[in-house]
Amino acid sequence: MDKKSGSGKNKYASIDRIRVLAFLFIIVYHFMVQLERNGNYDFLKKGLVYYENANLHIAMVGVSLFFMISGAGLMLSSRKSWNIRDFYKRRFIRLLIPFYIVELFTLIASYVMKPEWLEYFPTVPKIRIILNFLGMDGYFEQFFQTFSLHVGEWFLGALIMLYAVFPLLRFCMEKNRYITVIAATAGYSALIFGNVFSAPWTNVFVKAYDFILGMFLILELPKLMEKKTARYSILAVSLAVIFTGIVLKVQLPTQPVFNSLIIAVMIFAGAFALEPAGEGDNIFDRAVKWICGISYELFLVHHIIIYYIGDNLGGRLLNLRRIGVLFIAEAFIMLAMALFVKKIEKLIRLK
To answer: Residue 43 has what pLDDT?
Structure first.
């Protein structure tokens, strides 16, 4: 057993399962937003796809889970081997090459099919094109006009910034993870409960806490899960909190972003509590692993595909059957595009 990490495992099936669940949350949310833009309000009001209530929002939960597993994954892999130069080289190539591919395709498609998306570009200061090369155009679009094509949106820019400071966060975790997470919690509390940001769930300083929590939990949870009593207790608490968050109709006196983070933490902990029961080679985990292999590419293409197809519906109202068919069709297109991007990415790397 690795004394530093408290576990001999370098990979947990739970991380992949959480990644797929988080991605499903994000896809459903963007799909529902597009339906709303097309005027399908009756479908939303019936609650046939439940994605928001008084205290949580599945998009916020999904985003928190993404940042948590990003921090957890980096922390886990860096404990196996660590070289800061190699880290920056591998990670930023992994993030930016697929981004450039999808960005180029989106630019061409927009020029041919959706030229109105590019109409405001002449008014944007040309120096801001540097944000596109850094993958941060979507993030800074929250604050001023950029040349963003919405590839990766705000999420990618925030993730890149957190990757940039990961060596510092890792150093703090290795020195004293408890002081680090306490300091991070104090900072997060000041930002959230002080209402510092109008949209905290898309701000990198707030999402840094999710990232740090993931780093912390991946070091602590495996040790707790070695004890059956602790594992069952964590699972019971997680299920109780998640169930309460879903059914509670009274709005709590806390911000939705905080409530959603608590749900995300419970999902993260609950998934790890189920890890021993889910070990082994099975078709479910093989499918999950396959999807995770193209999850980043899926993330980059999914919103663009939903946008393009949704905008071409022309405000057409859809019944439940057609909405289901549309969702399945978009899912297959996303998978095909993600595989295509992955193929090009591999060809580029071979060269």
So the answer is: 62
Domain contains 6: no
Cα 339 to chain centroid, rounded = 19
- Sequence-separated (6 or more) residues with CB below 8 Å from residue 22: 61, 62, 63, 65, 66, 69
Q: 282 Cβ partners below 8 Å, 6+ apart?
A: none
For 143, half-sphere exposure in the C-beta direction (CA atoms, 13 angstrom radius) is: 12
- Bridge partners of 47, per DSSP, are none
Share of the chain above pLDDT 90, in %: 40
Q: What number of other Cβ atoms are within 10 A of residue 41's Cβ?
A: 11
**Tell me, what's the pLDDT at 199?**
74
Residues paired with 52 in a beta bridge: 57
Q: Is 2 contained in some domain? A: no
**Measured between alpha carbons, how far is 2 from 117 in angstroms, rounded to an integer?**
52
Q: How far is CA 330 from the centre of its chain?
A: 19
The 10 Å Cβ neighbour count of residue 86 is 10
Q: Residue 127 is encoded by which pair of tokens? A: 């120096």
Q: Show the domain range for 313.
A: 13-350
Q: What pLDDT score was predicted for residue 303?
A: 86
Helix (H, G, I), strand (E, B) or coil at 208: helix
Rg of the chain (C-alpha set): 21
39: left (phi over 0), alpha (psi -120 to 50) or beta: left
Structure token digits, residue 268: 């993260």
- In a domain, residue 7? The reply is no
CA dist 110 and 117 (Å) reads: 7
Supply the DSSP symbol for 246: H
Number of domains in the chain: 1
Confidence of residue 316 (pLDDT cuts 50, 70, 90): low
Residue 3 domain flag:
no
Q: Which element (helix H / strand E) includes 215?
A: helix 204-224
